[in-house]
Amino acid sequence: MPGITLGDTVPNLEVETTLKNFKLHDYFADSWTVLFSHPGDFTPVCTTELGAMGKYAHEFEHRGVKLLGLSCDDVQSHKDWIKDIEAFTPGSKVKYPIIADPNKEIIPQLNMIDPIENGPSRALHIVGPDCKIKLSFLYPSTTGRNMDEVLRALDSLLMASKHNNKIATPVNWKPDEPVVISPSVSDTEAKKLFPQGFKTADLPSKKGYMRLTDVS
Amino acid sequence: MPGITLGDTVPNLEVETTLKNFKLHDYFADSWTVLFSHPGDFTPVCTTELGAMGKYAHEFEHRGVKLLGLSCDDVQSHKDWIKDIEAFTPGSKVKYPIIADPNKEIIPQLNMIDPIENGPSRALHIVGPDCKIKLSFLYPSTTGRNMDEVLRALDSLLMASKHNNKIATPVNWKPDEPVVISPSVSDTEAKKLFPQGFKTADLPSKKGYMRLTDVS
């Protein structure tokens, strides 16, 4: 039984990290955050993942998105381990904070438990500026995440947010590809919102709901 | 507050679908299943997603994996909508069953709720033959999923399962790339399990946990 899921507010816990201690809502304030857990320091998949996060850091930075890691080791362990991470992934700098949760008090509250390991899973929540979970990946310890998919999903959320959720992104969408207009938007409103125009697909139902437009 | 998460058993609900009615555990038995919800019939992102699922069907089939869709419309609506799906995505055939949940009784039990829409989210659970959730994507209605990532994650789970979770897959892993040996496996055991050998990365900590091997 998890603590939180899509749409829930992340609890405002006070956390100890490799950089400084803070309350989660202070960290989340005014930006989007990628909050991710990993099973343990000095373990192989985690080392590749945190290295990748460090290497992709500029991608998150130029989108104004913060990173925040977490595992059930203490701060000193995290700091020692960072040397391994940076050595294994050349070009990676771990500048983002990593939360220490040595007593496993935080992971049950954040839906970040691997049932087989009884430790942290590879959970990754994208948290909005309102401190609510917008999207989650819940992977077990055996499966390293895909940073390109994290970025793609983030780009979709940012694009939808920029357009007040009046658009959505189709399957396998990538930035610069067309988006669809949300069903809640009437054709009249769509003409005002999207002066560049939109194309309505001709489908057997003739319901006119598949409206594609270019917002890039 | 979600119904279920990683490691939980999917409840053995009796469901009505576009093909026939069954109990979930009977459907899950003896194989892996991709169980996914979509916000609504005759809506744009869902049409692209279910079309993609149909187009990728052979990929799931040759892995011995079943597909099972769900939304809060009735069976007749699903059947009418399938004509649109197949028209929009040429080459796609929707042969997998889609659950009808017109009274929204199932989605709260399966952690498939979009908090903004108060209807189904784009949740996708990969369910093991033991009827437990192995991995989940929880996306909101604005963000279409990525079928390549679903397949990649599935390949990782199947590979780990084949090797009794003695291996795991690194960040951004793809089939045919090296895997890592799990920390629970000693070097002595690893030499027996992986006669092809493995390479241990030389990292500053000298802890010897980063062991890569080729199992493809």
UniProtKB/TrEMBL annotation, chains A, B:
Enzyme Commission designation: 1.11.1.24
Annotated GO CC locations: cytosol; mitochondrion
Boundaries of every Thioredoxin domain copy: 4-159
Swiss-Prot/TrEMBL keywords: Antioxidant, Oxidoreductase, Peroxidase, Redox-active center
Reaction equation(s) it catalyzes: a hydroperoxide + [thioredoxin]-dithiol = an alcohol + [thioredoxin]-disulfide + H2O
SUPFAM superfamilies: Thioredoxin-like
GO biological process: cell redox homeostasis
Residues annotated as the enzyme's active site: C46 (cysteine sulfenic acid (-soh) intermediate)
Domain of life the protein comes from: Eukaryota
Molecular function terms from GO: thioredoxin-dependent peroxiredoxin activity
Stored Pfam families: 1-cysPrx_C (PF10417), AhpC-TSA (PF00578)
PANTHER family: MCG48959-RELATED, PEROXIREDOXIN-6
Family assignment from sequence similarity: Belongs to the peroxiredoxin family. Prx6 subfamily.
Chain's role: Thiol-specific peroxidase that catalyzes the reduction of hydrogen peroxide and organic hydroperoxides to water and alcohols, respectively. Seems to contribute to the inhibition of germination during stress.
Protein name: Peroxiredoxin
